[in-house]
Amino acid sequence: MRSLLPAVAEQLFQDIQKTYQETSQIPDDLLIALKFVFGSCALQALDLVDQRSVTCLTSPSGRKAFQVMGGSGHLYTCFLSCHYCPCPAFAYSVLRRNQDLLCKHILAVYLCQAMAATQQESVSDQQMSTLLSPTGTP
Amino acid sequence: MSDVLTLVFRTFMSESCLKKDPGVGLPSPAPCTTLMVGEHRVCRSLLLLAAVSAASEWGVRVVFFAQTQIQSLPVFLQRCSPSLSPESLKKITFSYPRTLEELLQQVASLHESPAPPSLLIVDRMEGFLRGTAGASHGGFQSGEQSRAAHLSALLCDTAAFLTRALERRGSSSAPCRVIASFPSEGDGKDSSPADPILDVLDRYFQVRCTLDPDRSYEAAAAAAQEVWHIYLSGRGLTEASGEDGPPVTQEWKLFAFPDGLMEFKLI
Protein backbone atom coordinates (compact mmCIF):
# COMPACT_ATOMS: atom_id res chain seq x y z
CA MET A 1 0.00 0.00 0.00
CA ARG A 2 1.20 3.51 -0.65
CA SER A 3 2.44 5.41 2.36
CA LEU A 4 -0.61 6.36 4.38
CA LEU A 5 0.95 5.81 7.77
CA PRO A 6 3.11 7.96 10.02
CA ALA A 7 6.82 7.65 9.33
CA VAL A 8 7.36 5.74 12.58
CA ALA A 9 4.91 3.05 11.47
CA GLU A 10 6.50 2.79 8.03
CA GLN A 11 9.93 2.41 9.62
CA LEU A 12 8.58 -0.20 12.02
CA PHE A 13 7.29 -2.38 9.18
CA GLN A 14 10.61 -2.04 7.34
CA ASP A 15 12.46 -3.12 10.49
CA ILE A 16 10.11 -6.06 10.97
CA GLN A 17 10.59 -7.13 7.36
CA LYS A 18 14.36 -6.93 7.56
CA THR A 19 14.60 -8.75 10.89
CA TYR A 20 12.10 -11.43 9.93
CA GLN A 21 13.98 -12.16 6.71
CA GLU A 22 17.15 -12.70 8.73
CA THR A 23 15.81 -14.51 11.80
CA SER A 24 12.27 -15.71 10.95
CA GLN A 25 10.95 -14.06 14.09
CA ILE A 26 10.01 -10.66 15.43
CA PRO A 27 12.16 -9.62 18.41
CA ASP A 28 10.60 -8.31 21.61
CA ASP A 29 11.63 -4.72 21.03
CA LEU A 30 9.76 -4.60 17.73
CA LEU A 31 6.74 -6.29 19.27
CA ILE A 32 6.70 -3.66 22.00
CA ALA A 33 7.01 -0.93 19.39
CA LEU A 34 4.16 -2.49 17.44
CA LYS A 35 1.91 -2.41 20.49
CA PHE A 36 2.96 1.12 21.31
CA VAL A 37 2.11 2.42 17.84
CA PHE A 38 -1.04 0.42 17.12
CA GLY A 39 -2.43 -0.32 20.58
CA SER A 40 -4.53 -3.33 21.43
CA CYS A 41 -5.12 -4.40 17.84
CA ALA A 42 -1.42 -5.25 17.47
CA LEU A 43 -1.72 -8.58 19.31
CA GLN A 44 -4.98 -9.39 17.56
CA ALA A 45 -3.34 -8.71 14.20
CA LEU A 46 -0.43 -10.97 15.07
CA ASP A 47 -2.90 -13.72 15.90
CA LEU A 48 -4.41 -13.30 12.44
CA VAL A 49 -0.94 -13.55 10.91
CA ASP A 50 -0.24 -16.74 12.88
CA GLN A 51 -3.51 -18.19 11.63
CA ARG A 52 -2.55 -17.42 8.02
CA SER A 53 -5.68 -15.34 7.72
CA VAL A 54 -4.56 -12.93 4.98
CA THR A 55 -4.97 -13.77 1.30
CA CYS A 56 -4.00 -11.65 -1.68
CA LEU A 57 -6.57 -12.13 -4.42
CA THR A 58 -5.53 -11.54 -8.03
CA SER A 59 -7.70 -11.52 -11.13
CA PRO A 60 -6.65 -11.85 -14.80
CA SER A 61 -6.92 -8.08 -15.32
CA GLY A 62 -4.19 -7.66 -12.69
CA ARG A 63 -6.53 -6.19 -10.10
CA LYS A 64 -5.60 -7.19 -6.55
CA ALA A 65 -7.30 -7.05 -3.18
CA PHE A 66 -6.69 -8.50 0.27
CA GLN A 67 -9.12 -10.77 2.02
CA VAL A 68 -8.79 -11.30 5.75
CA MET A 69 -10.55 -14.02 7.73
CA GLY A 70 -11.60 -12.37 10.98
CA GLY A 71 -11.77 -14.07 14.35
CA SER A 72 -15.53 -14.43 14.02
CA GLY A 73 -15.21 -16.23 10.71
CA HIS A 74 -16.19 -13.23 8.60
CA LEU A 75 -14.23 -12.46 5.45
CA TYR A 76 -13.20 -8.82 5.11
CA THR A 77 -12.05 -7.39 1.78
CA CYS A 78 -9.43 -4.66 2.10
CA PHE A 79 -7.89 -2.58 -0.64
CA LEU A 80 -4.34 -2.55 -1.92
CA SER A 81 -3.71 1.15 -2.12
CA CYS A 82 -5.64 2.80 0.71
CA HIS A 83 -7.09 2.00 4.09
CA TYR A 84 -10.56 0.60 4.23
CA CYS A 85 -12.08 -2.36 6.02
CA PRO A 86 -15.79 -3.15 6.35
CA CYS A 87 -15.39 -4.36 9.94
CA PRO A 88 -17.19 -2.58 12.80
CA ALA A 89 -13.90 -1.66 14.50
CA PHE A 90 -12.73 0.30 11.46
CA ALA A 91 -16.04 2.12 11.25
CA TYR A 92 -16.05 3.00 14.94
CA SER A 93 -12.47 3.35 16.17
CA VAL A 94 -10.87 4.65 12.99
CA LEU A 95 -13.54 6.60 11.14
CA ARG A 96 -15.92 7.76 13.83
CA ARG A 97 -13.70 8.19 16.90
CA ASN A 98 -10.38 8.70 15.11
CA GLN A 99 -8.81 6.73 17.97
CA ASP A 100 -6.89 4.11 16.02
CA LEU A 101 -4.80 4.26 12.87
CA LEU A 102 -5.97 0.89 11.61
CA CYS A 103 -8.15 -2.06 12.49
CA LYS A 104 -6.54 -5.44 13.18
CA HIS A 105 -7.41 -6.70 9.70
CA ILE A 106 -5.53 -3.95 7.85
CA LEU A 107 -2.65 -4.23 10.32
CA ALA A 108 -2.55 -7.98 9.66
CA VAL A 109 -2.23 -7.21 5.94
CA TYR A 110 0.77 -4.96 6.57
CA LEU A 111 2.39 -7.54 8.83
CA CYS A 112 1.82 -10.38 6.37
CA GLN A 113 3.37 -8.30 3.62
CA ALA A 114 6.38 -7.60 5.82
CA MET A 115 6.72 -11.25 6.84
CA ALA A 116 5.93 -12.72 3.41
CA ALA A 117 3.09 -14.63 5.04
CA THR A 118 0.34 -13.68 2.63
CA GLN A 119 -1.58 -16.49 0.97
CA GLN A 120 -2.17 -16.12 -2.76
CA GLU A 121 -5.36 -16.94 -4.64
CA SER A 122 -6.63 -16.34 -8.15
CA VAL A 123 -10.18 -15.24 -8.88
CA SER A 124 -11.97 -14.27 -12.07
CA ASP A 125 -12.46 -10.62 -13.02
CA GLN A 126 -16.16 -10.89 -12.28
CA GLN A 127 -15.51 -12.44 -8.89
CA MET A 128 -13.12 -9.61 -8.13
CA SER A 129 -15.79 -7.03 -9.05
CA THR A 130 -18.23 -8.74 -6.70
CA LEU A 131 -15.72 -8.84 -3.86
CA LEU A 132 -14.91 -5.15 -4.19
CA SER A 133 -18.56 -4.01 -4.22
CA PRO A 134 -21.01 -4.28 -1.31
CA THR A 135 -22.45 -7.67 -2.16
CA GLY A 136 -19.05 -9.10 -1.40
CA THR A 137 -18.80 -7.72 2.17
CA PRO A 138 -20.45 -8.97 5.37
CA MET B 1 1.83 20.69 -10.15
CA SER B 2 -1.60 21.35 -11.53
CA ASP B 3 -4.47 18.97 -11.28
CA VAL B 4 -7.17 18.62 -13.89
CA LEU B 5 -9.29 21.41 -12.43
CA THR B 6 -6.45 23.91 -12.35
CA LEU B 7 -5.72 23.22 -15.99
CA VAL B 8 -9.41 23.66 -16.81
CA PHE B 9 -9.40 27.02 -15.04
CA ARG B 10 -6.30 28.10 -16.93
CA THR B 11 -7.80 27.00 -20.25
CA PHE B 12 -10.80 29.23 -19.73
CA MET B 13 -9.07 32.20 -18.14
CA SER B 14 -10.00 35.67 -19.26
CA GLU B 15 -7.63 37.07 -21.89
CA SER B 16 -6.19 39.65 -19.56
CA CYS B 17 -5.24 36.99 -17.03
CA LEU B 18 -3.90 34.67 -19.71
CA LYS B 19 -1.08 37.07 -20.49
CA LYS B 20 0.13 36.82 -16.91
CA ASP B 21 -0.15 33.04 -16.63
CA PRO B 22 -0.10 31.26 -19.96
CA GLY B 23 0.88 27.88 -18.48
CA VAL B 24 -1.62 25.62 -20.16
CA GLY B 25 -0.82 22.06 -21.05
CA LEU B 26 -1.39 18.46 -20.15
CA PRO B 27 -2.05 17.56 -16.52
CA SER B 28 1.11 16.75 -14.57
CA PRO B 29 1.85 13.08 -13.95
CA ALA B 30 1.21 13.19 -10.18
CA PRO B 31 -1.92 11.20 -9.26
CA CYS B 32 -4.73 13.24 -7.78
CA THR B 33 -8.08 12.76 -6.15
CA THR B 34 -10.14 15.92 -5.78
CA LEU B 35 -13.28 16.57 -3.77
CA MET B 36 -15.35 19.53 -4.91
CA VAL B 37 -17.53 21.06 -2.20
CA GLY B 38 -20.08 23.73 -3.02
CA GLU B 39 -23.46 24.49 -4.52
CA HIS B 40 -24.58 21.63 -6.72
CA ARG B 41 -25.41 23.59 -9.88
CA VAL B 42 -21.95 25.16 -10.08
CA CYS B 43 -20.22 21.92 -9.11
CA ARG B 44 -21.98 20.04 -11.88
CA SER B 45 -21.00 22.68 -14.45
CA LEU B 46 -17.37 22.43 -13.40
CA LEU B 47 -17.46 18.65 -13.47
CA LEU B 48 -18.85 18.72 -17.00
CA LEU B 49 -16.23 21.26 -17.96
CA ALA B 50 -13.52 18.97 -16.60
CA ALA B 51 -14.97 15.97 -18.45
CA VAL B 52 -15.30 17.74 -21.77
CA SER B 53 -11.87 19.37 -21.46
CA ALA B 54 -10.21 16.08 -20.65
CA ALA B 55 -11.92 14.31 -23.55
CA SER B 56 -11.64 17.01 -26.20
CA GLU B 57 -8.49 18.95 -25.27
CA TRP B 58 -6.38 16.09 -23.91
CA GLY B 59 -7.97 13.09 -25.63
CA VAL B 60 -8.39 10.95 -22.51
CA ARG B 61 -11.26 8.61 -21.67
CA VAL B 62 -13.64 9.77 -19.00
CA VAL B 63 -16.33 7.97 -17.00
CA PHE B 64 -18.93 10.33 -15.53
CA PHE B 65 -21.23 8.92 -12.82
CA ALA B 66 -24.41 10.78 -11.86
CA GLN B 67 -27.80 9.94 -10.39
CA THR B 68 -29.70 12.38 -12.61
CA GLN B 69 -29.38 12.39 -16.37
CA ILE B 70 -27.53 15.17 -18.12
CA GLN B 71 -29.93 16.44 -20.73
CA SER B 72 -27.54 18.76 -22.55
CA LEU B 73 -24.15 20.36 -22.22
CA PRO B 74 -24.04 23.86 -20.74
CA VAL B 75 -24.11 26.68 -23.28
CA PHE B 76 -20.66 27.75 -22.17
CA LEU B 77 -19.12 24.44 -23.24
CA GLN B 78 -20.81 24.45 -26.60
CA ARG B 79 -19.51 27.91 -27.41
CA CYS B 80 -16.10 28.05 -25.80
CA SER B 81 -14.54 24.63 -26.24
CA PRO B 82 -12.75 24.76 -29.60
CA SER B 83 -11.96 21.06 -29.69
CA LEU B 84 -15.48 19.98 -28.87
CA SER B 85 -16.74 17.49 -31.42
CA PRO B 86 -18.93 14.38 -31.50
CA GLU B 87 -15.79 12.27 -31.80
CA SER B 88 -14.25 13.76 -28.68
CA LEU B 89 -17.51 13.46 -26.76
CA LYS B 90 -17.50 9.73 -27.48
CA LYS B 91 -14.57 9.50 -25.08
CA ILE B 92 -16.94 10.32 -22.24
CA THR B 93 -19.07 7.49 -20.86
CA PHE B 94 -22.04 8.76 -18.87
CA SER B 95 -23.37 6.28 -16.35
CA TYR B 96 -26.46 6.77 -14.18
CA PRO B 97 -26.45 4.37 -11.21
CA ARG B 98 -29.57 4.87 -9.13
CA THR B 99 -28.18 3.73 -5.81
CA LEU B 100 -24.91 3.58 -3.93
CA GLU B 101 -24.83 -0.17 -4.47
CA GLU B 102 -25.09 0.24 -8.24
CA LEU B 103 -22.38 2.89 -8.20
CA LEU B 104 -20.06 0.65 -6.19
CA GLN B 105 -20.67 -2.25 -8.56
CA GLN B 106 -19.94 -0.11 -11.61
CA VAL B 107 -16.75 1.35 -10.16
CA ALA B 108 -15.65 -2.08 -8.92
CA SER B 109 -16.00 -3.52 -12.41
CA LEU B 110 -13.98 -0.83 -14.21
CA HIS B 111 -10.96 -3.13 -14.13
CA GLU B 112 -12.84 -5.33 -16.61
CA SER B 113 -12.96 -2.50 -19.15
CA PRO B 114 -10.73 -3.11 -22.22
CA ALA B 115 -9.95 0.63 -22.49
CA PRO B 116 -8.95 2.08 -19.10
CA PRO B 117 -10.32 5.56 -18.42
CA SER B 118 -8.03 8.31 -17.18
CA LEU B 119 -10.61 10.37 -15.35
CA LEU B 120 -13.40 9.20 -13.05
CA ILE B 121 -16.02 11.76 -12.11
CA VAL B 122 -18.76 11.29 -9.53
CA ASP B 123 -21.44 13.96 -9.46
CA ARG B 124 -23.10 14.53 -6.12
CA MET B 125 -21.63 11.84 -3.87
CA GLU B 126 -23.89 13.10 -1.15
CA GLY B 127 -26.95 11.90 -3.06
CA PHE B 128 -25.59 8.37 -3.23
CA LEU B 129 -24.49 8.29 0.39
CA ARG B 130 -27.48 9.87 2.08
CA GLY B 131 -30.02 8.10 -0.02
CA THR B 132 -29.01 4.72 1.38
CA ALA B 133 -31.81 2.65 2.90
CA GLY B 134 -31.72 2.68 6.66
CA ALA B 135 -30.05 6.07 6.89
CA SER B 136 -30.84 7.67 10.17
CA HIS B 137 -32.58 10.98 10.66
CA GLY B 138 -30.73 13.88 12.23
CA GLY B 139 -27.14 12.91 12.53
CA PHE B 140 -24.78 10.41 11.00
CA GLN B 141 -24.24 6.86 12.10
CA SER B 142 -21.01 4.97 11.66
CA GLY B 143 -22.72 2.94 8.89
CA GLU B 144 -22.94 6.03 6.70
CA GLN B 145 -19.35 6.96 7.43
CA SER B 146 -18.32 3.42 6.54
CA ARG B 147 -20.20 3.62 3.25
CA ALA B 148 -18.54 6.95 2.47
CA ALA B 149 -15.17 5.38 3.22
CA HIS B 150 -15.98 2.35 1.08
CA LEU B 151 -16.94 4.44 -1.94
CA SER B 152 -13.95 6.77 -1.55
CA ALA B 153 -11.49 3.93 -1.02
CA LEU B 154 -12.90 2.03 -3.99
CA LEU B 155 -12.53 5.09 -6.21
CA CYS B 156 -8.94 5.61 -5.05
CA ASP B 157 -8.00 1.95 -5.39
CA THR B 158 -9.62 1.72 -8.81
CA ALA B 159 -7.78 4.85 -9.95
CA ALA B 160 -4.51 3.38 -8.69
CA PHE B 161 -5.16 0.16 -10.62
CA LEU B 162 -6.15 2.04 -13.80
CA THR B 163 -2.99 4.14 -13.49
CA ARG B 164 -0.86 1.00 -13.49
CA ALA B 165 -2.85 -0.37 -16.43
CA LEU B 166 -2.32 2.84 -18.42
CA GLU B 167 1.39 2.90 -17.58
CA ARG B 168 1.81 -0.72 -18.67
CA ARG B 169 0.34 0.25 -22.03
CA GLY B 170 2.76 3.14 -22.29
CA SER B 171 -0.17 5.52 -22.41
CA SER B 172 0.41 9.23 -21.93
CA SER B 173 -3.02 9.36 -20.34
CA ALA B 174 -1.68 8.07 -17.01
CA PRO B 175 -2.34 8.62 -14.17
CA CYS B 176 -6.02 8.04 -13.65
CA ARG B 177 -7.60 10.87 -11.63
CA VAL B 178 -10.78 11.13 -9.61
CA ILE B 179 -12.99 14.19 -9.15
CA ALA B 180 -16.12 13.97 -7.01
CA SER B 181 -18.57 16.61 -5.92
CA PHE B 182 -20.23 16.89 -2.53
CA PRO B 183 -22.84 19.65 -2.52
CA SER B 184 -22.83 21.69 0.66
CA GLU B 185 -25.57 24.24 0.09
CA GLY B 186 -28.82 24.62 -1.74
CA ASP B 187 -29.97 21.16 -0.80
CA GLY B 188 -31.42 21.96 2.57
CA LYS B 189 -28.60 20.08 4.27
CA ASP B 190 -26.37 21.22 7.07
CA SER B 191 -23.10 22.49 5.66
CA SER B 192 -21.32 22.62 8.99
CA PRO B 193 -17.54 22.25 8.72
CA ALA B 194 -17.81 19.39 11.20
CA ASP B 195 -19.80 17.26 8.74
CA PRO B 196 -18.69 13.71 9.67
CA ILE B 197 -19.09 12.49 6.10
CA LEU B 198 -16.75 15.21 4.85
CA ASP B 199 -14.26 14.24 7.56
CA VAL B 200 -14.24 10.72 6.14
CA LEU B 201 -13.96 11.90 2.54
CA ASP B 202 -10.99 14.12 3.46
CA ARG B 203 -9.09 10.95 4.43
CA TYR B 204 -9.16 9.75 0.85
CA PHE B 205 -9.24 12.84 -1.35
CA GLN B 206 -5.89 14.62 -1.69
CA VAL B 207 -7.24 17.97 -2.85
CA ARG B 208 -10.30 19.92 -1.68
CA CYS B 209 -11.87 22.35 -4.16
CA THR B 210 -14.22 24.66 -2.25
CA LEU B 211 -16.68 26.93 -4.01
CA ASP B 212 -18.06 29.90 -2.12
CA PRO B 213 -20.45 32.47 -3.55
CA ASP B 214 -19.10 36.00 -3.70
CA ARG B 215 -21.49 38.33 -1.95
CA SER B 216 -19.70 41.56 -2.77
CA TYR B 217 -20.47 43.96 -5.60
CA GLU B 218 -17.87 42.40 -7.85
CA ALA B 219 -20.48 40.59 -9.92
CA ALA B 220 -22.20 43.85 -10.78
CA ALA B 221 -18.90 45.56 -11.45
CA ALA B 222 -17.90 42.82 -13.89
CA ALA B 223 -21.37 42.66 -15.49
CA ALA B 224 -21.48 39.06 -14.32
CA GLN B 225 -24.54 37.24 -13.03
CA GLU B 226 -22.59 35.41 -10.34
CA VAL B 227 -19.09 35.34 -8.95
CA TRP B 228 -17.68 32.36 -7.08
CA HIS B 229 -14.52 31.98 -5.05
CA ILE B 230 -12.68 28.72 -5.77
CA TYR B 231 -10.14 27.51 -3.24
CA LEU B 232 -7.87 24.54 -3.94
CA SER B 233 -6.14 23.10 -0.89
CA GLY B 234 -5.00 19.83 0.61
CA ARG B 235 -2.06 17.51 0.92
CA GLY B 236 -2.14 16.78 -2.81
CA LEU B 237 -1.01 20.33 -3.51
CA THR B 238 1.44 20.38 -0.58
CA GLU B 239 3.10 17.14 -1.69
CA ALA B 240 3.51 18.51 -5.18
CA SER B 241 5.29 21.58 -3.88
CA GLY B 242 7.91 19.40 -2.20
CA GLU B 243 7.99 17.49 1.07
CA ASP B 244 9.42 20.45 2.94
CA GLY B 245 7.43 23.06 1.13
CA PRO B 246 4.88 25.28 2.83
CA PRO B 247 1.18 24.44 2.59
CA VAL B 248 0.01 25.37 -0.87
CA THR B 249 -3.37 26.78 -1.75
CA GLN B 250 -4.68 28.17 -4.98
CA GLU B 251 -7.44 30.71 -5.22
CA TRP B 252 -9.48 31.48 -8.30
CA LYS B 253 -12.59 33.40 -9.14
CA LEU B 254 -15.32 32.18 -11.45
CA PHE B 255 -17.38 34.79 -13.28
CA ALA B 256 -20.68 33.48 -14.69
CA PHE B 257 -22.29 35.84 -17.21
CA PRO B 258 -25.97 36.13 -18.18
CA ASP B 259 -25.32 34.67 -21.66
CA GLY B 260 -23.99 31.46 -20.10
CA LEU B 261 -20.29 32.20 -20.59
CA MET B 262 -17.81 31.59 -17.80
CA GLU B 263 -14.38 32.99 -17.09
CA PHE B 264 -11.76 32.13 -14.50
CA LYS B 265 -9.31 34.46 -12.85
CA LEU B 266 -6.31 33.44 -10.78
CA ILE B 267 -6.02 35.39 -7.54
UniProtKB/TrEMBL annotation, chain A:
SWIM-type domain span: 76-114
Domain of life: Eukaryota
Keywords: Metal-binding, Zinc, Zinc-finger
InterPro entries: Znf_SWIM
PROSITE patterns: ZF_SWIM (PS50966)
UniProt keyword annotation of Heme present: no
Single GO MF annotation: zinc ion binding
A biological-process GO annotation: double-strand break repair via homologous recombination
Any Gene Ontology CC annotation: Shu complex
Protein name according to UniProt: Zinc finger, SWIM-type containing 7
